[in-house]
Every structure is written in structure tokens, then in C-alpha cells.
Amino acid sequence: MKVFWSVAAAGLLFAGCSRSNGPSPGCSELPLRHEAIEERDASMEAAVAGVEIEAPKDFAIYREWGPAREGSALRLIQGLADLVSPKDDELLTELESRRIDWAVESVVIDRSFSRGRERHFVLRATTLEIHEGHESACLDSDQEPTGLAGMAVGGKEAWTAYIVPKAVEDVRVVPHVARYRIPRHAAAGGCVRGATDLSLISHHWHAALATGGRYRMWISESRGCFGPGCAKVFVSESTDGVYWKPKQVVADRQAVFDAPTSLDLGWNSTAVAPSETDGLLMVHARGLHVSRSDDGLHWVTEATELDESLSGGLQSLSIQSLTVLRHEGRYWLWFEPLSGDAPRIHLMTSEDGRSWTRVGDGPVLVEGEVGSFDEWGVASPQVIRLDGQFVMVYVGQYGGEPGRPLRSVLATAISDDGVHWTKSERPLLGPRSEQVGDVFHSPSVVADSDGLRVWFADRMNTIYHARCPW
């Protein structure tokens, strides 16, 4: 019995992170993802044409998470007598519960956890070939696999078991890999960026305002717990936007807003805007709760309500990020719903900050075309008024695959009415490097004397700032 991997090389397609016999093409010579996948699929279809068999019956096996196991990701079991090791006791119990006719059937265990991969099966004499579609992003001669590495269900590993004919003696995986380049997007230029002495304890959000010759930043965090009473909001102040007091160290800070035990703010995004009473309005994403303050330090939470266009009620409204602005006697709130789809930006408005009405039937800003700097989504909106227009700074996600972007940029869009937006042709800020995961999150923006002042966090949760002309 043999179980092994083989490589099917065709054009730009080859397996894993290995190299083909000839020189590997540079990243710039590779196609974009959708083009590479088309080539890979054509290669795989040609390889199985005329010899493909019906996919074997399969079932899932769930195992407790444990240390990495030795051996191949594939295992051919031709009878229960093959399971003699104490390590196989759990697997033995599982297979005994299945209706398998061991006289004419065997079982192939696939431990690669390759959820979502396309598979084709070919039986050549006594060898079962499993042709799999993979993809890999090329990063300046480095290669990073971008497919899902595993699947966990209830804290367990999920394996796939195939019931195959008894005649099968060998199992061979034939990977077909779409190797592709991630597009590069040059920033518009002119921004001067630098570090601040702020950092986030965890991946949470901040909101900044410029008031009275100083900058103030409110940072919302759950402080390592979830559920009612966990969320806290801290405030720091700065005269230059670089050095802040108090520093973002737990011992130095005092919470200006403690969520009451009856209020579940969860992983909460917070937005702050001047209110109609010359104070401040703070909007919390979870359930769209609202708090008010006269000084930015002492806050009182109020009840809110949504109209029928936001069905499901307050507690079911899941928002990932949001921004709020008061203009022409109304509050305008742009938000990114938390969903399994590509991030998109929606709008709702309110006269008093308590009753909110959705604007339109869908998003006001959506992802761009494949290959653009926001091909996989537009997220984390921040909106200000500048030169008589609405100006939005948002996170554009690109590279990798849908739902798993490898990079992001800070981009801008402008609008006369807050509903119809025109995106900039080039991003405002791009990643410093070409590393996987060099991403932006949690931006805040204010209008400054020379244009835009932007704060944003990186993947290590350090907050940076940039001055950008406008």
C-alpha cells in the first residue's frame, strides 16, 4: 500500500511552495488571481478528461485537537485490523459505527482539512488519484499559501473519510496550483506618516476629534472579557497628534465610560461627534446604543430605536465599524455591517440621535472591480465635511481571496449628498511593505489646516498618524 503526493505542473501551475524544474517566474510575470484560477481549472479538467470517476461517498470524522501527527495527510485503511495502535482507538470506534462492507470496501482518511477545494477523482488500475485545486499568492519571489489550513468544529479537527473500492491499493494526491501575483497600488503621494506613542490593548476601535486646539481620542476596548459590563472607553489628549496623555498603558488610564452590567457592547466600535446641545454624542456599534456628554469625560447612555427598514431590532443589528457626523441639523451615520459577505458601507440618519432611519435599500459604497485596491471590500468608514463636501476615508481590502484579503489601503471618496460617492483613483496610503498581512484598521480622520490628519492602527495594534494634503 502506498500513499503519496505527486505534482502536476502545467504552465504556471505547480504544487505547494516547491519549485518547478525550470526557473520560477517572477511575481510580476504571473497572472492575477482570477486569471490563474481559470488556467488551473482548465489544466485540471484536461488532466481528468475521460478518466474521471464519480466522487466516492464521504463522511466527516471529528477528532480532538492535539499535537501534529506524523505521517501523510492521507491514510488508506483496508480493514479494522489496520487500526492496532492505541492512537487509533478513537478512529476505530468511529469506523466501527459506520456501515462499511470491508470485504469490498476500504476507507481513505484525508487529514488535510482542505475545506472548499475542488476535487476530481481518477482510478487508474489500483491507484486512486485525488486531483485538488489549490492557490498560492506570489510575493516578490516568496510564496505564501492562501487556502484555508484547517477546519475546526466545536474545538475539534474535521477530517474527511472516503469509502473506496477494495481494489484501491495506492492513493495519490495530484495538486493543481494557481500561482498568482497580488496587484500593487501606488498611493497618491504627499502624505507624511509617522508613529505615535499610542497603542491598542487589543484589536478595537478609536475615534478622534479636534476641539479647542487639541486632539482627543476615545478608545473602546472589552478588556479581555465579553458580555454585559465588559466594554470600557478610555480617552487621551494631545496637542500635536503624536504624543498623548495619558499613555496607552493600562495602569495610566481611567475609564471615562464603563458599560453598565445590563449593556452588552461586546467587541465594540465607537464613534463620537459634536451634538445638537454643544456637547458630544457617542454611538456604540453593538445595538446602536447612544451616550451623551458635556465634557467628553462623563457620559449618560440613552435608549434608541430603529425604523422597520432595519429589521430585527437593536440587539440583532451587528455593526463592525461606524462613523457619525452632525450636518444640517441631522446626524449621519455610515456603518459597515458585520456579515459573511464582502464589507460594504451603509447609511442611516437621525434628527435627535435616538430614532434612526436607514437611507436607501442597500449600501452606499461597495467593493471595486477585481484587481482594484478595494476588490474584496470597503470597510471602517470615517467621514468629515471638507470644502463643502462629504469626504470619506475607508479601508480598501485586496489581494488573497474573498473573505481573506492579504493587504489593505486607506482610500478616499467624496460625495455631495452622503449617498452617491466617487472614489479616488489611487489610495491615500498604501502598505509600507509587500508582506502578507500588512494591513490597516480602525482609522480616524479630522480636517486640519493643511488637509487631512489621519490616525490608523497596524496589525500589531500600534497607532500611526499621517498628514495628507487635500
Question: What value does the average pLDDT take?
Answer: 79
Q: What helical percentage do the residues reach?
A: under 10%
Query: In terms of structural class, how would the helical and strand content be classed?
Result: mainly beta
What is the rounded Rg?
27 Å
Low-confidence region ranges: 1-24, 67-71, 141-155, 248-253, 260-267
Task: Write up this protein.
By secondary structure, the chain is mainly β. It has two helices and 32 strands. It has helices at residues 33-48, 89-96; strands spanning 2-5, 52-53, 57-64, 74-77, 105-110, 119-124, 127-139, 142-145, 152-153, 156-165, 170-181, 192-199, 205-211, 214-221, 232-238, 255-258, 270-274, 280-284, 289-293, 300-302, 305-306, 319-327, 330-337, 346-350, 355-358, 377-386, 389-398, 407-415, 422-423, 441-448, 451-457, 462-468. Strands 1, 2, 6, 7, 8 and 11 form a six-stranded mixed β-sheet that branches. Strands 3, 4, 5, 9 and 10 form a five-stranded antiparallel β-sheet that branches. The protein has a five-stranded mixed β-sheet with strand order 21-25-24-23-22, with no helix packed on it. Strand 28 and strand 29 form a beta hairpin. The radius of gyration is 27 Å and the shape is elongated.
